Amino acid sequence: MRELVFLLEKASAKALLEGLLPRMLDHRILPRLIAFEGKQDLEKQLVRRLRSYLNPDARFLVLRDQDSAPDCIEVKKKLMGLCATAGRQTVSLVRIACRELESMYLADLRAVENALAVTGLAKRQSSAKFRHPDRLESPGRELVKLTNGEYQKVSGSRLLGRHLDTANERSASFRNLVRGIRRLETELLEIP
User: Fold this and answer.
1) Reading across the β-sheet that carries 59-65, which strands appear in turn?
2) What are the beta bridge partners of residue 32?
3) What pLDDT does residue 184 have?
4) How far are the Cα atoms of 9, 58, 115, 120, 189 from residue 53, in angstroms, in the given order?
5) What is the CA angle 112-114-116, rounded to 5?
6) Tens place of pLDDT per residue across the chain (192 aa)
7) Residue 83, CA atoms < 13 Å, CB-side half-sphere
8) How far is residue 96's CA from residue 190's CA, in Å, rounded to a whole number?
9) How many distinct helices (H) and strands (E) make up the chain?
10) For residue 77, what are the contacts with CB-CB under 8 A and spacing of at least 6?
């Protein structure tokens, strides 16, 4: 069975992927979405979850926010180390949302406008703040403010997953997530 297993920091990431993956993944690949209760829970359980996964052909993508960690590369190294400890480093990818998942949404204000029915957002994409949203300190707070409170973490993520443009490259975090999914999809489709 061709499985792509997502190990996610929180429920909002799961909600995003529930909307995004049906538009991206080949129908022969079964996505499994496992949401944890925050980054500490993810890190605490990651090795055990990876080791105990029975499908030898599965591929794994770990997704976590950078939050206040000073260096996303160090966060990624730590998570890749946990994948290696589990013996799954060759079939796992780690992706970090720089600072928060919401930076990916701010990179596609047309999707936010359409998903949340908040008019006038797309025209703000050209402002400096939204050209490089991965640099924002608190993208979640910015998104709530921008949408006058219409954005809610889980329900908003679910809606936005259905609208985000997978070719959008304004957020390096989103671009790398999409490329990672595509890479693992290709690996899975090459399995006889």
Assistant:
1) 30-35, 3-8, 59-65, 92-97
2) 5
3) 98
4) 18, 8, 35, 46, 19
5) 60
6) 899 999 999 999 999 999 999 999 999 999 999 999 999 999 999 999 999 999 999 999 999 999 888 888 999 999 999 999 999 999 999 999 988 999 999 999 999 999 999 999 999 999 988 988 988 989 999 999 999 999 999 999 999 999 999 999 999 999 999 999 999 999 999 998
7) 21
8) 26
9) 9, 4
10) none
The tokens describing 83, both together, are 């994948």
Spell out the alpha helix ranges (H) of the chain: 11-24, 39-52, 72-85, 102-106, 109-116, 128-131, 139-146, 153-161, 172-189
* CA dist., res. 42 & res. 115, Å (int): 29
Q: Which two tokens stand for residue 179?
A: 């490329």
* Token output for 53: 């996964």
Name the β-bridge partners of 62: 7, 94
The DSSP secondary structure of 148-172, one letter per residue, reads: TT---HHHHHHHHHTT--TT--S-H
Tokens for 65? 């926010």
Q: Give the model confidence (pLDDT) of 118-150 as tens digits.
A: 999 999 999 988 988 988 989 999 999 999 999
Residue type, 171: S
Distance (Å, whole) CA 178 – CA 24: 9
